[in-house]
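## retry 2 of 3
previous attempt timed out at serialization; input unchanged, resubmitting
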Amino acid sequence: MVKPTFAEHLVAWQRVHGRHDLPWQVTDPYRVWLSEIMLQQTQVTAVLQYYARFLLRFPSLESLAQASVDDVLAQWSGLGYYSRARNLHRAAQIVMTQFGGVFPSLRQQIETLPGIGRSTAAAISAFSFGQREAILDGNVKRVLTRVFGIEGFPGDKKNEVGLWHLADSLLPLQDIEAYTQGLMDLGATVCRKSRPLCTDCPVHRECVALRDDRIAELPTPRPKKASPTRYTTMLLMRYRDQVYLERRPPSGIWGGLLSLPECAGQAEAEDWLAREGEGDVLPSWPEVEHIFTHFRLIITPQPIRLDGLSAKDVRETGGIWLPLSTASEAGVPAPVKRLLQKLAAGPI
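## retry succeeded, writing output
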């Protein structure tokens, strides 16, 4: 009797034990693409509510392409990694103008769109068009390094190239959709980063890491680097029932979003008020910590109450006055949203 292959084990397992009720498990490339972008760096549970809300506002690729980037960022607010939203918007426009509104089917074509790498393009191509393409996201890297006992940090270029060769060699000749979904499901629900359910794994008898008691060692972790800390003071400038926000540069953290103006500290805020406006610099609020992938940001919220019409002369690059009651609903970063909600909840 011929021994089942890795792919055959996985397909059979997925049919019975895999996930079958996720809202993006369809063949519509727009919905598949949206889910793949949202799921980058984000857990399924967090994506579910944003996915439904986003589709309610932008039910088609055409509606997304026609929307303003501000509207797109507002729907994305809170999900993080905002370059994904800007790339999604730009890619929709490219599909409309360069592909006649028809989402491309080949992985190589999909990969040319902004914000889409090889693995994401392969997933869209496999799920939407049945193309025989390999994926290699973080979950898949964990499965392959454990099952085949592959050492070395998977993010290193040399190691990643080897994993791509392995992923390509494992592809089945048919059932590519079930196989691809099975890989994702196995990594997300069974071959987890911690406390994996090895006895539930369809390939546990072939798993080198399980055999050699190396589950905790594989995949090899990224070499540790010290995470730097940055500090900033954010100005909560209030004039009557309005608050002042400014547009951040298109690149960098929170690129393109509206945010609170920043300065070096309370003394600088007082100097600014003495030059530019009339009012009071109030006591600062407790510090707020926000964690990014490569650093942590410590924010000191600094309320400023502006008086008189001179406040209307405040102008920062890309700045705008918004009603305090609705400012938190604009496209703003998550920590800024919380500060605006606190400001709206009571007097300062």
